[in-house]
From TrEMBL:
SUPFAM superfamilies assigned to the protein according to its UniProt record, in alphabetical order: P-loop containing nucleoside triphosphate hydrolases
Keywords tagged on the record: ATP-binding, Nucleotide-binding, Transport
Domain of life, per lineage: Bacteria
Name of the featured protein: ABC transporter ATP-binding protein
Keyword Nucleotide-binding listed: yes
Residues making up the signal peptide according to the UniProt record: none
Domain ABC transporter: 5-245
Keyword Nucleotide-binding: yes
One term of GO molecular function: ATP binding
Amino acid sequence: MKDILEVNNLNKSYSLNKSEEQAVLRNIDLRIPEGQFVSVMGASGSGKSTLLYTISGMDRMTSGQVRFDQEDISSLPDKTLAALRRNKMGFIFQQIHLLKNLTLLDNIVLSEYLAGRESRKAINRRARELMSEMGIAELEDRDVTQASGGQLQRVGICRALMNRPKMIFGDEPTGALNSKATSEIMALLGRINRSGTTILLVTHDVKVAARTERVLLMEDGRIVGEQHLGKYEQDRNDDAKLREEKLSSWLLQMGV
Ligand SMILES: Nc1ncnc2c1ncn2[C@@H]1O[C@H](COP(=O)(O)OP(=O)(O)O)[C@@H](O)[C@H]1O
Ligand SMILES: [Mg+2]
């Protein structure tokens, strides 16, 4: 399988003041094959979010190279980079930001309307299909205040899928959800991944990471280890508990 993401010697630092720099990402090398479901764990402040933002082109790196889908994004101008994100990437966050005066359906279609790639009719049709796949078809006319956290996260996933992204990036997407909603969201992401979309999630939650295929561990701006669990096959009654135990004992061994 070819790599959708190839990161070479990525460094990111912030200047604290004129003479002091804080290194947040240090010499990161990473390859992600197309179709993989990856999670990133690590203590708070270890650089997980910064890694996600720099490899997805939301934030600039200090040095190094990132190739996404065969294209070197390190040197792309801002506008080209923004277009690439719009065309090929999807993002989900812990808190979804929705416009209060719009229905959930309108929130999902908005950026595609603005992109103007397809007719509004086709865009609405796709949004309704996605809402139905995510089990929230009946919510299309509701507004933000009329849905639960888990339902809003499904709205976020629908919105992220509108452009048929090659890769989805998630920063703690289940961080604000209870365990039932978390498990439902992970089942949906698993399905999306099985249909071919590469996914990279930042998470604190062993239960979440245990449902991904490959777990990276960050410490102080470096990837210090990784664990390959293989794809989680929920439909084949794959043993989630066993995966969690395996991951927990590895984390313990890694000193987490
Ligand atoms: N915009 C910024 N300016 C300065 N320092 C930052 C900025 N963003 C993050 N940092 C620092 O980078 C480090 C890693 O942050 P982050 O990537 O958010 O970690 P994590 O997601 O693992 O909690 C932290 O020490 C944080 O304080
Ligand atoms: Mg973070």
